[in-house]
């Protein structure tokens, strides 16, 4: 076992020497590995050598390092999955126990610890009581926000169809914005809602790319007039493209008038709301029906781990439960316990609560806040560097630790030394710098900025 | 980091001293832990002590041990999640890299290794070329078979609605049997198909609890006559209740006549089909549209890890893809690579291929077959012990490593020394002994048998 641990430790010690972005060509790996599975066993040593030679060059080193002080991220593309030493250790623990906690009885600690960490984080976020177990709401850990959106959409859909009849299926309308995560569209497709009844309402730069409640009202109005049935709104706190904030409170007001289920997707930015100074970004959440954040995005937890809170667990459970004899047992029949298999899509489930419990305890609320603040502070620094150079434009307001700016993308990505990504917003091509890898320090941000400037200089001198 | 590893090693060294089944009462954990998250950090040592004191007593020790020769399973309930030393080590590796491989570019090695291990296992299973990449089919690793059923159902549904118009949604019929896994019913619910159009066709003991193709034909006929549209059939190789085998070939013949998508769920038993002597259980698979097995059930891999093969990946991709600007990149646009995010429900995905690659290499085909054979052999032994004791009845034919028998369940479960579970089949209450935990040896099976006999003796002497 030690050889494997040492291998990972070495990886992190050397991580700054790797190109952040993999430089391999499509199909490279097939040429390097056997065509068929080996008939006889191979040693771990041999396999680790192959990982070093063949796999590591094909990995984008977006990770955060398990040894603090060491290596890591010149990675600023997409939202970094913010692992941590603790997140990694606890993955070892939760894998080691290999718990399959589909119902309470299959491992009571898994279900009970999950209720506890969900309550802890709900409290840290100052969620209204209606979302917490003690207020008849409740929460569950799922894989990713994609899964959470699908499950809540199915719950909303079934609630509506039970009320108005299943023949309304074709009439149901789902609302998002042009900046909403693709998970919503995918959920609409999987849930069998009509893709032609999916509205991606246009946002504008003038509105900081957040949704205007009046635009929503107009669109919903038109749908109702056309005989359609408004069903579901996905509002976002911290959109993927620009970290825009949809105004939760005012949007919920509109939704209430039309009896629309409001799901708030704070997959990335939700974690920051445990800092009192950022909590206002989810003001109005009491008007929503469900709320989600990905702990693996910005909460020091390895992929995958998503918090979902709902006001009405029974709606979720009605859509997702099946009752099978082979899973019946005294504990469930007693109604004293809850079985999380009815709160999610799959039956088997991993012991994700263990990861969060360790992160919460080993950091403590105080240090979790400090961690999040330090990343936001670095993003501010990067933003200032950009604003002081007139060859660049900051394209959207920086709310958290993402800075969107304009210029020179391909040449920056191509270098492999720093990795940023691009997006289209409001018809313009912009660059995306997301600061969030656990080990990123100011010096990495400043180095990234230097690389960008060098490219700008080189390009300008060519012209 | 070492303290965590040592902790897990100790756990396995002591595992035989724990009651297999947790003895805690509902709500036990809430009384033991803080009501809110701690404000200041706590040490890993403190947390590990709490895990020992509070969590381990609430875990069902169904795991397989990472140190062979040590500890473990007197666990025969449900299908054991067959972790292994290698499966555990590789979880460390795949977590350590913390790869988020949603598209090729985000980590080329993740996508390419996945294609390779899917091809390797496809070959080991002697899947027809039409399911393999080289025959225009292909495969993907998902979380569990539940997810795979949902994704294939959505693909089948959309293919059908595109052909016949979306107004047929209410008419679509999905077929399973009373022994089909609840995942099918859940998928029907989530995919928005009418639950009244979900047929759980009755199987009978006389038919070894497998589906009779004639029964299927009759039911489908009646549906067509009633103006409904047959859509999807889920056939099972190794049902959860009794390990029954639905006859794939003949069922596919019926399905073909009605243009029904056939999904073969071999979640548990599929692994065994890498042994030539068990391959016949999936004969006829060439007539199916999709095929799945859970590597975490019986392939030495930790939860979660499910293989899904499809004959027509484009059907899957059409239902599950969304095209978003922020994930565009040269590699994808070149069409030289595939992006697995279009093959599954979520966007982010873990590096599951790494787990399988290590299992396949470090065991080799030879030892994987030996492992599976040894468990089947132990189940045979247990079956013989039962058949030689006239107080017990073996209720269904034993095909793999599950033995279903009748009598005395509650008192056996309650003892906590061995853990078996129960199910209802054909109106009768039966006991379920699934042999599959990686470290189970003959002596554990014989001990389980002694416990069962002692209980039988005790009960009979009371009367």
Any overview of this molecule?
The structure is a homodimer. With about 475 residues, chain A is α/β, with parallel strands linked by helices. In chain A, strand 4, helix 8 and strand 5 form a beta-alpha-beta unit. The longest helix of chain A is centred in the last third of the chain and has 36 residues. The relative contact order of chain A is 0.15. About 0% of the residues of chain A have low confidence. At the A-B interface, helix 1, helix 2, helix 3, helix 4 and helix 5 of A face helix 1, helix 2, helix 3, helix 4 and helix 5 of B.
Summarize the structure.
Two copies of one chain form a homodimer. With 463 residues, the first copy, chain A, is α/β, with parallel strands linked by helices.
Layout of secondary structure:
The structure is a homodimer of 463-residue chains.
Chain A: H1 2-13, H2 44-55, H3 85-97, H4 108-124, E1 138-142, H5 145-164, E2 172-177, H6 182-190, E3 198-201, H7 213-225, E4 229-236, H8 248-258, E5 261-265, E6 290-294, H9 295-298, E7 306-310, H10 313-320, H11 330-333, H12 352-387, E8 393-394, E9 402-406, H13 409-414, E10 421-425, E11 428-434, H14 442-462
Parallel strand pairs in A: 2-3, 2-4, 4-5, 5-6
Antiparallel strand pairs in A: 1-7, 6-7, 8-9, 9-11, 10-11
Helix pairs in contact in A: 3-12, 4-12, 5-6, 5-10, 7-8, 12-14
Keywords, separated by commas or semicolons:
4-stranded antiparallel beta sheet, 14 helices, Aspartate Aminotransferase, domain 1, 2 domains, homodimer, Aspartate Aminotransferase, domain 2, 463 residues, 11 strands
């Amino acid at each position: 076992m030690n050889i494997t641990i040492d291998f990972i430790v070495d990886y992190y010690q050397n991580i700054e020497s790797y190109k952040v972005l993999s430089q391999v060509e499509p199909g490279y790996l097939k040429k390097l590995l056997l065509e068929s599975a080996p008939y006889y066993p191979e040693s771990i040593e041999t396999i680790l050598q192959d990982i070093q030679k063949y796999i590591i060059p094909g990995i984008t080193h977006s990770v955060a390092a398990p040894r603090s002080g060491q290596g890591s991220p010149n990675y600023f593309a997409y939202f970094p999955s913010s692992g941590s030493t603790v997140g990694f250790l606890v993955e070892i623990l939760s894998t080691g126990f290999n718990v399959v906690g589909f119902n309470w009885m299959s491992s009571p600690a898994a279900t009970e610890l999950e209720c506890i960490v969900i309550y802890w984080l709900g409290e840290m976020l100052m969620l209204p009581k209606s979302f917490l177990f003690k207020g008849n709401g409740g929460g569950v850990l799922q894989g990713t926000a994609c899964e959470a959106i699908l499950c809540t959409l199915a719950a909303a859909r079934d609630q509506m169809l039970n009320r108005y009849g299943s023949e309304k299926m074709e009439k149901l309308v789902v609302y998002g914005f042009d900046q909403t995560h693709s998970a919503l569209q995918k959920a609409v497709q999987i849930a069998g809602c009509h893709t032609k009844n999916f509205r991606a309402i246009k946002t504008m730069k003038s509105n900081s790319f957040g949704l205007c409640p009046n635009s929503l009202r107009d669109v919903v109005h038109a749908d109702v007039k056309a005989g359609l049935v408004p069903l579901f709104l996905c509002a976002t706190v911290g959109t993927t493209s620009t970290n825009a904030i949809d105004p939760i409170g005012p949007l919920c007001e509109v939704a209430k008038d039309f009896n629309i289920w409001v799901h708030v997707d704070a997959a990335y930015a939700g974690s920051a709301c445990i800092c009192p100074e950022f909590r206002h970004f989810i003001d109005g959440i009491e008007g929503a029906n469900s709320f989600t954040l990905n702990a693996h995005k910005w909460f020091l937890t390895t992929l995958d781990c998503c918090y979902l809170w709902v006001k009405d667990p029974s709606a979720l459970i009605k859509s997702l439960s099946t009752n099978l004899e082979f899973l019946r047992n005294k504990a469930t029949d007693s109604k004293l316990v809850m079985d999380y298999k009815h709160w999610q899509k799959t039956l088997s489930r991993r012991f994700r609560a263990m990861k969060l419990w360790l992160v919460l305890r080993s950091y403590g609320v105080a240090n979790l806040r400090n961690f999040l603040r330090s990343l936001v502070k670095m993003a501010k620094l990067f933003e200032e560097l950009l604003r002081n150079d007139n060859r660049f434009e900051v394209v959207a307001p920086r709310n958290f630790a993402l800075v969107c700016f304009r210029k020179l993308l391909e040449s920056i990505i191509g270098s492999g030394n720093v990795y940023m990504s691009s997006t289209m917003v409001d018809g313009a091509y912009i660059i995306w710098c997301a600061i969030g890898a656990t080990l990123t320090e100011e010096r990495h941000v400043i180095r990234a900025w230097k690389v960008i400037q060098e490219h700008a200089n080189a390009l300008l001198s060519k012209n």
